[in-house]
Amino acid sequence: MDQKRFQQKLSELNDQTHHYLSELRELISQMDFNSGQSLQTISYFTFSMNISHDLDMENLILGTYHIHNLSEQNISNPYICIKLSSGTPFMFSGKYIYPDSQKQIRTPGAWERMNDREDKEEYWLRPLDREIIEPNEMITFPNFQIKWSPDKSYSGSVMGFTYSDQFQDGMASLNQINLSGNVSSGGEGNGEQ
Predict the structure, then answer these.
(1) I need a surface site. Which of 1, 37, 106, 172 has the fewest CB within 10 A?
(2) What angle do CA 114, 91, 161 make, to 5 degrees?
(3) Rounded (10°) CA dihedral 53, 174, 130, 72
(4) CATH fold for domain 35-181
(5) Domain extents for the chain?
(6) Is the pTM of this model over 0.70?
(7) Are 113 and 123 in contact (CB under 8 A)?
(8) Gap between the Cα atoms of 99 and 129, Å rounded
(9) Residue 100 class from Cβ within 10 Å (0-12 exposed, 13-18 middle, 19+ buried)?
(10) What's the pLDDT tens digit per position in 124-172?
(11) 65 CB-contact burial (10 Å; exposed 0-12 / middle 13-18 / buried 19+)
């Protein structure tokens, strides 16, 4: 793909993301937050993708997970679970530390992984510097990456769940990231010549 087509496609995807965010804002603004049945906290993914159809290239998602407190009450002790479908080639990475890390990096916005580092499907994370999300405030787990190589056909999802003292059973994010791709066994379109 030449650079002009790539930039055009990137621009189209960016416009689509802005459109979706505008629709979400419109739906949220129409909600009655004073009724007892209102949605008081939302969480969602924003992300961009670099997908290659060349078997020698790696695919990449750059994403951010947002938690927005729309209520008039504090949300206490927030934490999240980012879950990858089992059996997928997806590799997750992000800016988090482990409780037993030698260097406890206390940079603003730092997160800590709460579950076993050997688990490659679920990532339970909590913000280190935030125990409260105040009314109308948002926190994010920014700039995570999901990588995979298309050596065979794949299909899977990235799901997000938000937990807190108020949401002990968890609350699913408004969206998830769904991916699938078919890799042909030979010929045109798979990187072979």
Answers:
(1) 37
(2) 45
(3) 160
(4) Immunoglobulin-like (2.60.40)
(5) 1-30, 35-181
(6) yes
(7) yes
(8) 14
(9) exposed
(10) 999 998 899 999 999 999 999 999 987 778 889 999 999 999 999 999 9
(11) buried
